[in-house]
Amino acid sequence: MTVSNRENMQKPDYLSDDEWAYLKDQTSSLARIRSDGNADVASYLANPDGRATGAGPSGLPTLLLTTIGKKSGQQRTVALVFLQHGDAVVIVASLAGYDRNPAWYGNLEANPSCWVQLDRKKSKAVARDATESERRALWPQLTKLLPLWDLFQKQTERAFPIVIVTPTGQA
Questions:
Q1: b/e map of 31-49 (b: 16 or more CB within 10 Å)?
Q2: Are 83 and 90 in contact (CB under 8 A)?
Q3: 3-state secondary structure the chain
Q4: What angle (nearest 5°) sits at the alpha carbon of residue 118, between those of residues 115 and 119?
Q5: pLDDT-based confidence at 4, cuts 50/70/90?
């Protein structure tokens, strides 16, 4: 998202003025998003119980996704809101509506093998992009879970990748 896009964001009716100011501050820069993301991972690791069912600080179902960095070859972990979809989980590469995909998505494009952690349960997994048909079916469910995804999607021409992550065994 360009600065002009961010300045032109319209406050949705479902957010109070205080919530809107907080959201704008939280997503004001990629550096802020990265810093907060690192804190989210540390918090999850320190107290993982209930995160997958929304009992964590955000009130939303949250998992840890670990990918292999496409440049570094090192493990990279992020905390993400997810939608349970049968045995799989669905995640959205929104990056708060910025005009580029998050690094974790690029890592999965390079190597779809990954790990997911739901509370204390760690699994090996494989990721893939949702098909167009799956996207159409999943998007309403995803935006019901987190309406901000719809707001952020309107801020960029980039279609958010919707990723289906299927566990393949214990980590």
A1: eebeeebeebbeebeeebe
A2: yes
A3: CCHHHHHCCCCCCCCCHHHHHHHHHHCCCHHHHHHHHHHHHHHHHHCCCCHHHCCCCCCCCEEEEEEECCCCCCEEEEEEECEEECCEEEEECCHHHCCCCCHHHHHHHHCCEEEEEECCEEEEEEEEECCHHHHHHHHHHHHHHCCHHHHHHCCCCCCCCEEEEEEEEEC
A4: 130
A5: very low
With contact defined as beta carbons under 8 Å apart, do 51 and 119 qualify?
yes
Q: What is the pLDDT of residues 75-103, one digit of tens each?
A: 999 999 999 999 999 999 999 999 999 99
Residue 117 near residue 48, CB atoms below 8 Å: yes
With left for phi above 0 and alpha for psi between -120 and 50, is residue 117 left, alpha or beta? Answer: beta
Rounded to two decimals, the pTM is 0.92
Residue type, 143: T
Relative to beta strand 162-170, strand 113-118 is unpaired
Q: Which residues pair with 127 in a beta bridge?
A: 165
**Average pLDDT, stretch 115-119?**
98
Give residue 156's identity as a one-letter amino acid code: T
Hey, what domains does the chain have and what are their CATH numbers?
A: 3-170 (2.30.110.10)
The Cα 49–Cα 24 span in angstroms is: 29
